[in-house]
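Quick entry between incubations.
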Amino acid sequence: MSDVLSGSLILSKSVLILLSVLIIIRCLRSLLSERYEAEVWAYLQLGRDQLPVTHWENLIGRSHSADIHVDRDRVSRVHAVLVRSGKGVWTVYDIFSKGGVWVNRIKISPHGAEVHDGDVINLGGTPLRFHDMTNEKRQKLEERRTVAGKRVSPFGTLLELSVFQIFLLLQHALCTEEHLPMIALGFAALLALEWFCYSSMRLLGRSGFEIETIAFYLSSLGMSVAASSVPEDLIKQILLMIAGVALFLLTGWWLRSLRRITAVRGLAAFAALALLAVNAVFSEEIMGARNWLEFGGYSFQPSEFVKVLYLYVGASTLDRLYRKQNLFVFMAFSAMCVIALALIGDFGTALVFFVCFLVISFLRSGSIATVLLALTGAGMAGVMAVSVRPHIAQRFASWGHVWEDIYGTGYQQARAMSAAAAGGLFGKGAGSGWLKNIVAADTDMVFAVVCEEQGLIIALCMVLAVMALAFFAVRSARYGRSAWYAIAACGAMAMLLTQTALNVFGTMDLLPFTGVTFPFVSRGGSSLLSCWMLMAFLKGSDTRKDASFVVNPVRVLPEDEEEEEAEA
Amino acid sequence: MKKITHRAVSVLLLAALIIAGLVLYTLRYIDDGRDWALSFARANSGSTGELTDRNGRLLASFDAVENRYAEDAATRTACYAVTGDYWGRSGTGALTWFWDDMHSYSLLTGTTHSSSVDLQLTVDASLCRTAYEALGGRKGAVMLMDYRSGEVLCMVSSPSVDPLDNGEPPEGAYLNRCLSSCFTPGSVFKLVTAAAAIETVPNMDDRSFYCEGEYEIAGVPIICSGDHYTQTFEQAMANSCNVAFAQIAVKVGQENMIEHVRAYGFLDRHDLDGIPSAAGSYPLDFIGDPELAWSGIGQSTDLVNPYAMLRFVAAVANGGKLAEPHLIAGRSGPVTRLVDEDTAETLGAMMNYNVVSHYDGGNNFPGLNLCAKTGTAELGDGSSHAWFVGYLLDEQHPYAFVVLVENGGGGLAAAGPVANAVLQKAVQ
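Done. Structure below.
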């Protein structure tokens, strides 16, 4: 290798690492340090105090964890739920309180009662006067909130990402000539897509772009891995990415209306189970798992789409949670999903679902007992799965012993660990690795491929990027309008974190090898599409001022138009 | 809402587990990364450094495109026992065993193209070529080392193969006879019996031995190569008298013989910078005096590995202390006592007397101050292995050597000229 070539390789390596770290830090700073001011939708007047109503779904009670904390003797710990519809109509529900709820001295029915500006809500003897806000007043308040992206410019971060992608392409150019036009097309598509998304957001007046930036950052690494392992098949990866972004926008648009979401939850549950059933019946077994479905020459993994449907069904609004306190329907649905996946033999995805189920059921019930019960049940089911499925049992047996049989059971992981270590901190350069030639390296062992070609630092950035999304989901959940968005966002991140952990630690022999994809980076169609759809869930929980296209802005609109705008 | 969002912290538990996992992985990476990376070093680095001989001559290199070896076929073939090949067809080659030494690994940069390391060996490629040509296509082994420093200058096994020749190799070409084979030693084993006698039988120098060409022990005849009549211990060695050594072996006794054979390392597996050698054998179960007599002459079931014999001779040459032989330049090993100092001195004097009085040193080994012992190991089928082992008494050229020609005939006649050719070249 000539000095010029190796010199440019060293330059591009250092630039890539520097930009990786910068991009992650900028996104983290933007997501975690920006000021979140709660949206205020109405006030409840208690004596002289004005209590702000900061969500669309509010728990009222004596408990400190109630959204509207009313510290009076005869108010129950959780007493009532105050809910705002998309049209701006407020309803109060009694959630089995001791003292009961009256609106204007009329005791409310189990179906709740509408409240309007000036009405008095009486909680077991404590009167609260309800002050709705006119759109003008809300608009004024809204103007005082900080716009997203004020501290850390999303434009700057995206610019860094673009430079990152260009240098990644340059590294490929140093290594290959044969497929360079296609690889260049891949990165051009990436650049075009992200700037298209960014400018569309700006046109819509939205300024939050961190989630997309992280998704595109991970996609760049994914594009690099695909360009390295299957350059002749890169067009598929490009088309899938475009489809993924399209699905992201479509899902985001769908999630704008809570009424629309709740209207088809039953249908979504049915669709999820139907997909799994079709999968279990018609699929062909590949490498021990029957999770592939051939359809007109294209194969796809139904379980990836079931993930999205599962979250959609599993998330719930607050009023439903408190009025129908049982989890049984959800648990039965979850059990059916997990059992179907176990039957299909997709142990890894079953585990991803199960962790997501644990998180969602804990978010919904707050009951550790339920979680422990579920864990015990799953533990027994897991033991059965291991004993029935020989290829799973074998993976457990070789766990922690991959170096003892590098030509047998440890074949893949020993090579993955060796190649990853050979990459050092800075990597060998895009396209220069050899691990990509091992079966399923660019999907199940993609962490090691990135370690080898881009080095440990970028590989760690990659994991940190997924975690940044999780931190954001947890933080923004506190300011969500509806519990549905908070639960969906946290559930989505539980899935992606579990996938990340199984992928990374499975490859590196810290966990059994389960063959789960790394979000956005692993090559693979269905997985990429579902990841983009999950990002829409995350966008739904971002209530910073004018941040997310999934969240309707507070504007001066006639009462009914808000919903109509969403429908349009 | 607040209730739910407080519970959302549970998602952070997952994140914490991932961080813990990453920390654990990174620690293991720091600890074991080198082993991991070098396990598939060739795939990981995509090239190797240059393997060179002591004079910097290229023996092998791999530059990510092609496997390169020494320039001429004769050197490639002669050095094959040392180098082996990139395919690992020889189980004892440097390219197989010194893989780790030919790649560097660092935590920061891992194992990359630029991290291949050149490795210099102690062997002299042209000396190997001389040795290989002296064997002249016969099966055999030649080893020569510096007994002061432990550097191995020559290691040749014949027949050998040109690693670039894709044709059918001769039978046994991938076998390194120096390290991997054991042979019936014949009379060279009398050095071992003599050393054991010096240490266990009092007044060996004052004893005399009488030979009429044949001697019976418990009704079994021991046949000698000639009639040597009355001879001293030293003369018996020079005559290589079977009758005398049969009596000496019986005098030493089987237990003492076993003890010394073991102590001199003939029953152990050794290694040459990690490349393993084969262990020899000596009758360990009770065999009775006649068989014990034969075993003391180097027949019976005795089997000696040429490298083990070289270690013994080198120790004798070095006052009984063995400078651990090595193949990688600059990597000298420990110096350990293998033979008692007085024993080594006595034995050395006897070996010098052999050459001066019986091997016609002036003609056969002109200009060399040589100490040596021949061996003609009878194989029972009329043929015999020819051995010639010894060392130079020369501070400028402190070389110990072993020459073996399989089925070569008489030790001095068949192996002597090979040793002479190699030594003449070595002292040039």
